[in-house]
Amino acid sequence: MTELRYLPDADDVTEFEATVTTATEEYIILDGTYFYPEGGGQPPDHGTIEWDGGSATIDDVWKDHGDVRHGVQSLDGDPPTEGTAVTCRIDEQRRRNLSRMHTAQHVVSRVVLDEFDASTAGNQVYAERSRIDFEPASFDDADLDRIEELSNTAIEADYGVTKEERPREQVEENVDEGRALLDMIPDHVDPLRVVAIEEFDMCPCGGTHADSLGELGGIEILDCTSKGENVERIEFTLDNLE
What we know:
Layout: E1 3-4, E2 15-23, E3 27-30, E4 32-33, E5 47-51, E6 54-64, E7 67-76, E8 85-90, H1 92-116, E9 119-124, E10 130-135, H2 141-156, E11 161-166, H3 168-174, E12 192-197, E13 201-204, E14 219-226, E15 232-238
Parallel strand pairs: 1-4
Antiparallel strand pairs: 2-3, 2-8, 3-7, 5-6, 5-8, 6-7, 9-10, 10-15, 11-12, 12-13, 14-15
């Protein structure tokens, strides 16, 4: 089983050492990783894994029965053998953009819940542009302006963001109705990793995030489309993406 070393609050680490447990020409499994495996609406990290006599470019990362497989896009040399020490480097710029975007998704979701009583039905974060589906919702242009304004007001307040594990029972008692899809998290997952924005929001989430809202820059809403009865999709981006 691969140790998820970025949890609960080490999601700023982008270079680390690890040991190979399994390797093929298609993927590499390590004893522990800071690479984020795709999930929760967030794409996987990209980067490289290097060892004495070889290296691999990683363009996909996913979970498989407790292991994290680092998908090999290209391989220089033979795959490393079990027990090989490796140096791993995550694409820092891409990780930072995804962390900022995921945190911005939490901000917009909070604003929409508070102002329009609409829950987040789904989301997909990308490094350049992201989207959130809300229901029940029907937004007009004035509503979108309001969402953008309040989201940027929260960012300007530069609230701190903490990431920590909390007992599931405590999370279930304290998270606001409509803010988290707790039914989709298996009952055996306890404690839950929680992302909390001081005085603003709290939500169980396993993704990578900024350490404060001031890191996000401004949110700009790009589009809003209907995705079915009472479901609206908001697309947004951030200023100063790297």
